Amino acid sequence: MKTIYYILGSFAAALCLTACVGDLNVTPIDPNANTADKALATEAQFKAYLASTYLGFASPGYYGANGEASISGLDGGASQYIRGLYHHTSLTTDEAVCGWNDQTIKNFHWMNWTTDDTFIYAFYSRIFMQVSAANEFIREAAKYGENVANRDEYIAEARVLRAIAYYHAIDNFGNVPFSDETSIVGAVPEQISRADLYAWLEKELIDLIDNSALAAPRANGYSRADKGVAKFLLAKLYLNAEVFTGTAQWQKCADVLKDLMDDGYSLHTTPNGSIFSAYQDLFLADNDKCTEEIIFAVQQDGVNTTSYGATNYLIFASTGGTMDPAEMGISSGWGGLRTTPEFYDKFSAEDERTLFYTTDQQKDIDDIGEFTHGYAFMKYRNINSDGTPGKELGFVDTDFPMMRYADVLLMAAECQARGASIDGLSAYNQVRSRAGMDEANSITLQNVLDERGRELYQECWRRNDLIRFGQFTSSSYLWQWKGNVKEGKGVEDYRNLFPIPDSDRLANSNLQQNPGYSSSK
């Protein structure tokens, strides 16, 4: 963990990266030019270095799925950023179960994880590797490249990527170690309280939106951090302000959403030559065409950006039993991920978002380790919108849509339902209409929560939503195997946060464990 916090030892490797993020496709830099004064002198070199920070969300290491992982001692596939995010935000809810016997993977759905859980340590490490990567870029970029025209914009982009990682830190772990570009390299980081990290993120995001060289929404290409991404993240921060700080900020959230809704985004509603529904288009191998709705995506490419995590995991692990892998655009299935009957019952047959495989699958999960128990997901596929497969069958081209305009509309609906001044009902009905559902005349908070589940499943928001609505740990809403009993039961409220991993607390005496957890060692 010292390596993650203090320095990026892979700086030279980052400079040799070929990027695949929007217009950050660049020519690799000569690996001999590995000192900052030489390697950060031109526009192309800045792009190459910045691309490595983006890659941290997409791949386990700088050399793809089969290369050495960036974090030593961890399996590259299981420790990939989006896969770790899914473990924490989906497997812990009614949305998904995983039937494998991989170490402690079942503990997420059973909600009985411990402080020495390898998967928790892996995701925690990924978050702070991303923070360190962004800090190092910001620190070094500020020293060099005075003649690089877009240097300040690149620095602003790195600040947004750092904010994304810190958002996942505040959401999942609460009180965490903190460092920024001003921190002394080599110093042991202090722990920041959840409320203070909230205040830092709010100030940082407002500054990026109002005062930085960050590009306007959609101005610098697909899947690049811009002011639209910063606004989306600020809206999420305000949406969860009551959870993070104890003080609700519904109107602040609504005001940011109004601004974001004027930035030119729209729902993807008209398939262009697609044989699929407009909704499914968003999760196919060529979903990079859906730029009107996808605000920010983590890119995957079956040739150039490979991983055993992200959407590769979501597609392969959702395929098993009697499912045809070719229909999913892959070579074979891993037979792991399914949904619970409680979650499936939120859908109706006419809803175009009902993308599950039910043939030869039983609805109830009698045995969480049996793939045919529970309906399987068919939301993500390595198939293009015209029906042709992705470039490769072993790795997918499907990007992970981390931020979508549909979420903006549903956040607006929630803000209205909680008393803020915003036209949330119209926004809510836009989402329903796209799915082929009847429009509503009014909405309740439960309506909003259920609609968010139907629209955003497998996009890593479910835990966040259930906590905000008071249904994550409580017995007011149960699903199969919650609390490690088939009929479900409530669990301790302290599990609204994950523990600070034992290994990091042992390495850093400044860190205090989250309440409710005792060391496993």
Please describe what this structure looks like.
With 521 residues, this protein is mainly α. Helices cover 40% and strands 5% of the residues. The chain has helices spanning 2-6, 11-15, 36-39, 43-58, 81-89, 105-110, 118-141, 151-172, 194-210, 227-239, 241-245, 250-261, 278-281, 310-316, 325-328, 341-344, 405-417, 424-434, 445-456, 462-468, 502-507; strands at residues 97-98, 176-178, 190-192, 294-298, 337-338, 356-357, 376-377, 400-404. The strands form four sheets. It has a two-stranded antiparallel ribbon. The protein has a two-stranded antiparallel ribbon with strand order 2-3. Strands 4-8 form a two-stranded antiparallel ribbon. Helix 4 packs parallel to helix 8, helix 5 packs across helix 7 and helix 9 (194-210) packs antiparallel against helix 10. The longest helix has 24 residues, at 118-141. The chain is globular, with a radius of gyration of 22 Å.
